[in-house]
């Protein structure tokens, strides 16, 4: 079993590289963004609450995200046997610690953190392009700026946290999708 956190700023390519990791290693993918967007689309109570945070470029409260993850893991226990890619979570040190406990309770742990490192100007270009292509309401210039600001304040300290554990693998997130994935594979293998 191999549990991987894919880490990086909005627009760094986490979803794209998660798809490659799924195909190559046979891992189960949990994208907190996808889970939340599904709830928003279905108009659930969780979705309405999450939409308020997302529309303002803010992070979802930790206790809410942990309970969502626990439910997804428990509902997909068989699919997660080979391991899990956590995409978009954790985003804070408190979330990382809560995830460690959640996994420890299930007899497993995080094996590696793949950190996609991309310059700020490139991130904004990618987010705006993705918004045009996907129609994601949160991929506009104003929200992109807020999301990147929140990332730098709240999420980037995770890099140091995981480096201290020897789990962080910095990956140059520039180049073709294949070149970036080759760098990831080299680190994980």
Polypeptide structure, described:
- This protein is α/β, with parallel strands linked by helices.
- It has one domain (about 5-189): 3-Layer(aba) Sandwich (Rossmann fold).
- Helices cover about 60% and strands about 15% of the residues.
- It has helices spanning about 15-25, 30-40, 45-55, 60-75, 95-105, 120-135, 140-155, 155-165, 175-189; strands spanning about 5-10, 30, 85, 110-115, 170.
- The protein is globular, with a radius of gyration of 16 Å.
Short synopsis of the structure:
By secondary structure, the protein is of the alpha/beta class.
Oligomer: single chain
CATH class: Alpha Beta
Uncertain segments are: none
Cα separation of the termini = 14 Å
Tally of distinct domains = 1
Major sheet attributes: 5 strands, parallel
Query: Structural class per helix/strand content?
Result: alpha/beta
Taken in chain order, the helices and strands follow as EHEHHHEHEHHHEH
- Into which percent range does the helicity of residues fall? 55-70%
List the helices and strands and how they pair.
Elements: E1 4-8, H1 14-25, E2 28-31, H2 32-42, H3 45-55, H4 62-75, E3 84-87, H5 93-104, E4 112-117, H6 120-134, H7 141-155, H8 157-164, E5 168-172, H9 177-188
Parallel strand pairs: 1-3, 1-4, 2-3, 4-5
């Amino acid at each position: 079993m191999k549990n991987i956190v894919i880490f990086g700023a909005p627009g760094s390519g986490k979803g794209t590289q998660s798809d490659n990791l799924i195909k190559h290693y046979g891992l189960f993918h949990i994208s907190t963004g996808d889970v939340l967007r599904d709830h928003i689309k279905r108009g659930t109570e969780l979705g309405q609450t999450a939409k308020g945070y997302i529309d303002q470029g803010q992070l979802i409260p930790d206790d809410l995200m942990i309970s969502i993850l626990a439910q997804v893991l428990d509902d997909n226990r068989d699919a997660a046997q080979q391991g899990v890619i956590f995409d978009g979570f954790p985003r804070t040190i408190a979330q990382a610690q809560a995830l460690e406990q959640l996994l420890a309770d299930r007899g497993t742990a995080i094996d590696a953190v793949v950190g996609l490192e991309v310059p700020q100007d490139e991130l904004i270009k990618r987010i705006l392009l993705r918004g045009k292509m996907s129609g994601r309401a949160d991929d506009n210039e104003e929200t992109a700026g807020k999301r990147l600001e929140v990332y730098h304040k709240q999420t980037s300290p995770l890099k140091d946290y995981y480096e201290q554990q020897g789990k962080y693998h910095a990956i140059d997130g520039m180049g073709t999708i294949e070149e970036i994935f080759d760098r990831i594979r080299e680190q994980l293998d």
